[in-house]
Structure formats: structure tokens, C-alpha cells
Design goal:
The protein is of the alpha+beta class. Helix content is about 20%, strand content about 55%. Strand 6 and strand 7 form a beta hairpin. The termini are far apart.
Length: about 170
């Protein structure tokens, strides 16, 4: 009986040691969380933006573009502003290290004006490109807050309303 207990203790210590080695030595990932919010625009009550892809560019070791997990998602940006809130677009594990930029693809945008009129925006180039360095630290979470400036995103032309993604970014570590 003592032999069996001894073997079980050795096995448990081995499993615990293996987990510690994997977690703190071999696993060189951190978590990236991408959230959106906005600045208001007077002419609209609602602005719905559909996002379809998030990519980040890593520098240094394992340099390249990485896709952040995102199912196509529609967000009422003005609704977020009214609630003073943010909404998560994507969360993913990424290799720890320095990243130089983030690209977010806007698939479509619609709005409801204060008059009640519904607008489908033309989205000529739906890729928001933010070149602001950030770091994903091993075993930690890094949150990027993408703050859309709707007053600069929305414009009118003879062909209709245009939505061109314009935003800033802050990093919460």
C-alpha cells in the first residue's frame, strides 16, 4: 500500500512539474483582447458597423501577420457611447512580443439618422489600419481599445453617405 501511495505521489509531482514547465517556460503566449468604442456624431441615433477580420503584425522573432479570432460581428457604435461602454471584438492567444500595427476590416455600415431615416453607408476601403506599437506579454492580457471617431468616419457625397474607418487606439496592459 505504501508503495502505491509513493508511486501516486511521484506521478502527481511529475504532472505538476510538467504543467509548471509548460506554463512558465514553454508556453510563450499572452492574450490579446480587442475592444471598440466611439466618439458621437450629432446627425445619427445609431451607427451599426459590421466587422469581419482582425490582423496584427508581429515584429522580431516569429515576425509576420496573425489573425485574431473574430466571428463577423455587428456593433452599434453610438449605443456604446450612450452607455459609456466598450464591446469585445476579438480575443486570442498570441506569441508574446512586440507588435507594430493592427488592421480591422469593416465589412459594412448602416445608420439611423435622428430623423428616423435609415442609411446604408458606402464603405470604399473598409480596412482600418492603426500603426501603434503594443506588446503582448507572456502569461498576461493586453487590451486594445479602438476608439472610432464617427464625426470623421461619416461623410456625404453626391453618391450618398460614405463610411471610412477612422479611429485611435489605446493600450491597457
Amino acid at each position: 500500500m505504501k508503495k502505491i501511495v509513493g508511486i501516486l505521489v511521484v506521478c502527481l509531482v511529475g504532472v505538476a512539474a510538467g504543467y509548471i514547465v509548460w506554463s512558465y517556460v514553454l508556453n510563450d503566449e499572452g492574450t490579446l483582447i480587442v475592444k471598440v468604442t466611439d466618439e458621437p456624431i450629432d446627425e445619427f441615433d445609431k451607427v451599426f458597423v459590421t466587422f469581419s477580420e482582425i490582423k496584427v503584425q508581429k515584429s522580431g522573432e516569429n515576425a509576420g501577420w496573425y489573425t485574431v479570432s473574430l466571428q463577423t460581428k455587428t456593433v452599434d457604435l453610438l449605443g456604446l457611447h450612450k452607455k459609456n461602454a466598450t464591446e469585445v471584438l476579438g480575443i486570442d492567444k498570441l506569441k508574446a512580443g512586440k507588435y507594430t500595427q493592427i488592421w480591422i476590416v469593416v465589412e459594412s455600415a448602416k445608420g439611423v439618422k435622428t430623423s428616423g431615416e435609415e442609411i446604408t453607408f458606402i464603405v470604399p476601403d473598409g480596412t482600418l489600419k492603426i500603426i501603434t506599437p503594443f506588446e503582448v506579454k507572456k502569461g498576461e492580457s493586453t487590451t486594445l481599445i479602438i476608439d472610432f471617431d464617427l464625426a470623421r468616419c461619416v461623410s456625404t457625397m453626391s453618391i450618398g453617405y460614405i463610411f471610412t474607418p477612422v479611429a485611435g487606439m489605446t493600450v491597457e496592459e
